[in-house]
Amino acid sequence: MTYAPADTAFAERLSGQISPKAFKTPEPRYFEEPRGRWTAPIGLVLAPGDVEEVRTILMAANDARVRVVPYGGGTGLVGAQIPGPGPAPLILSMERMNAIRGVYPEENVMIVEAGVIMQDAHDAARAVDRVYPLSLAAKGTARIGGNLGTNAGGVNVLRYGNARDLCLGIEAVLPDGRVLNGLSRLRKDNTGYDLRNLLIGSEGTLAVTTAATLKLAPVPAEEGTAYLVVESPDAAVKLLSMAKAQMGEAVSAFELIKGMSFDFMRAAFPDIKLPFYPAPPWMVLIDIGLARGNSPQAALETLFTEAAEAGLVSDGVIAQSEGQRAAFWDIREYMPLASREVGGICSHDVSLPLSLVPEFLRRADQLVAGLGPFRVNCFGHMGDGNLHYNLFPPEGETRDKYMPRSKEIYAEVHALVVSMGGSFSAEHGVGRLKTDEMKKFTDPTRLELMRGIKALFDPNGIMNPGAVLPD
């Protein structure tokens, strides 16, 4: 495909058709990935203020064959928001489309524009005694459109599901300017193909999401959080089963944490108080939400007692206040930042059948040991089988020496994951990082159908070319 640049001539074509406020300074943040792994040629940045401006911009880009990259908060970790090499791109930022169009607490529904920051969605829900359950470490900057574009997961998938499970409807603009008016508030609507779920997880390759209908949930009346020391990942799997048997759907989150995470935290954020130090080899962070009149501390104490008797846990700290509970979660949310300070070589976002997680960790550690003297740190959402299995240089060395081997390491670890029935892309998306894996591991029929869908939505190929689908 031959593309034209989003240059001065293209900008002048749009002048007078959209508000001057839509023309943004092309700051480096729009063209650089957060971890510095990708940069793009500086092009045009437009931030439409409404659906009509999105239509105008896309129709112009489609006519001129200018490639368009939808941009949310820029927090993606697989490069989908960073254009590849080629003519200067058009970055379509949703930052000005940040209105909360409606909140319906009786329905547990909220309608928001794509540029709404996740934390603002949380605050709007809390204002009516509800919760929007999707939560990520980047919640202060990540935007709803990007969350839906990647089908984001986060810490509460165990109880509430991914972004896909929390979305009832979508409004989107196709490359030719047609608007998909799909902001349904219905829980049941079996009227043909589910176009909403085609757009969720498409990473900006089909259309531009402009608004969404989100599911809310009641705020749990009683919430509790604990760090528990487990003997091994095998023990963590058994502990999760025990917790669900005791508390059912009240288990909101269940995070597996390797002790090295606390070592990185101590080095990067020495002022943050850790529940254990020196760190044990493995821990879990468990969060529960109970009905009014039930004590989460008592429930967690019962869990700990039974788990200790079964030889699954050896120590634990249960939050005794809301402040301590928030502090426990702050630790978890700072872990990716601490890892970034150390400088990772490979950050694997993988998922496996839950019962195979311990075996994967044993086999992956053995595999990596044969590849080089790497440090392995692992944390993630054990409750839904999603691990962040990350490699770091030996202590005292920087990642620069080892980065040339990252592609080889990704390929080896991802091949192991797939051989065990897992996925090489659990919650971050495919982006530009994993298109080789898509080509290698994805069923050919599935790829063929995906390419057909892409051609139907975007026949001129202007929407985020190079992301998700391999060449």
Structural features, described:
This protein is of the alpha+beta class and 471 residues long. The chain has 4 domains: 8-93, Uridine Diphospho-n-acetylenolpyruvylglucosamine Reductase, domain 2 (2-Layer Sandwich); 100-218, Uridine Diphospho-n-acetylenolpyruvylglucosamine Reductase, domain 3 (2-Layer Sandwich); 222-340, Alpha-Beta Plaits (2-Layer Sandwich); 343-461, Alpha-Beta Plaits, CATH 3.30.70. The chain has helices at residues 8-14, 51-64, 118-126, 144-150, 157-160, 195-199, 233-247, 260-268, 296-309, 322-342, 357-371, 406-419, 435-441, 444-457; strands at residues 23-24, 44-46, 68-71, 90-93, 100-104, 109-113, 130-131, 167-173, 179-182, 208-215, 217-218, 222-230, 251-258, 282-290, 313-318, 346-351, 375-381, 386-392. The chain has a 7-stranded antiparallel β-sheet with strand order 15-12-14-13-17-18-16, with helices on both faces. The protein has a 5-stranded antiparallel β-sheet with strand order 5-6-10-8-9. It has a 4-stranded mixed β-sheet with strand order 1-2-4-3, with helices on one face. α11 (357-371) packs antiparallel against α12. The longest helix has 21 residues, at 322-342. It is globular, with a radius of gyration of 23 Å.
Brief overview:
With 471 residues, this protein is an alpha+beta fold. It has 14 helices and 18 strands.
Give the N-terminus to C-terminus distance in angstroms. 11 Å
What CATH architecture label of the largest domain applies? 2-Layer Sandwich
Q: Which spans have pLDDT < 50 for at least 5 consecutive residues? A: none
**Form type:** globular
Q: Strands across the major sheet, in which order?
A: 15-12-14-13-17-18-16
Please give the radius of gyration in angstroms.
Answer: 23 Å
Q: How many β-strands, per DSSP?
A: 18
The CATH class assignment of the largest domain is Alpha Beta
Q: By helix and strand content, what is the structural category?
A: alpha+beta
Biggest sheet overview: 7 strands, antiparallel
Q: What is the domain tally?
A: 4
**Count of alpha/pi helices:** 14
CATH topology of the largest domain: Uridine Diphospho-n-acetylenolpyruvylglucosamine Reductase, domain 3
How much β-strand is present in the residues?
15-25%
| Helical content (DSSP H or I, runs of 4+) | 25-40%
- The average pLDDT score comes to 96
